[in-house]
Amino acid sequence: MDRRTTLKWVLAASTSVPAKALTGPWDAEPTADLVSAYVPTVKGYGTDPPLTTIYRPGELWPLTLKPDERRTASVLSDLIIPADDTSPSASQVGVVDFLDEWLSAPYRSYQEDRRIILQGFGWLDRESVRRFRRAFVSLNEADQSAICDDICFIPKAKPAFNAAARFFARYRDLTAGGFYTTPEGRKDLQYVGNTPSRTFEGPPLDVLKKAGLL
Questions:
Q1: For the chain, what are the domain ranges?
Q2: pTM for this one?
């Protein structure tokens, strides 16, 4: 899949079913202790932190992902947004650090994302062993893609892959969110905002025509 398709799917999936639907056989494996063990005990930062300070990953709260999980995150992010002729891959612009920071935040919605993502990583490895007798990160790209193809679009996923497909949808949203808010991602979108300009000539005529305003 290319990044344009990824972005289209992210926009189409913005009204996806809430994460609470991830129940049932998905939780059959003993992952509850594993997930709860990562819940940060620190408090959140309350109001916005000083915006002029540059924070490094792990300075606001302890991070979640262990080395093997970061490898899984890197591989999966790059399957979703691979490098191409115009931009680097998701992992090359720091998306894994963004995800780790996000999943580690001590707030309820973020903790729910942590549960979904960590259980999803566990499912990927179990499914990889079931199909190919190897962990997900050890598979070649074709075999990794074969698994992802079964869960990359919720409406077409088989019932047995329903929960995994919802995990993939959430992971794809987070990956795209991390990538397209980097300078490289904004450039890939040809986004020209946040750029100082001495003048403003208004929207281009072709844009106004496309919007039906001319």
A1: 3-210
A2: 0.74
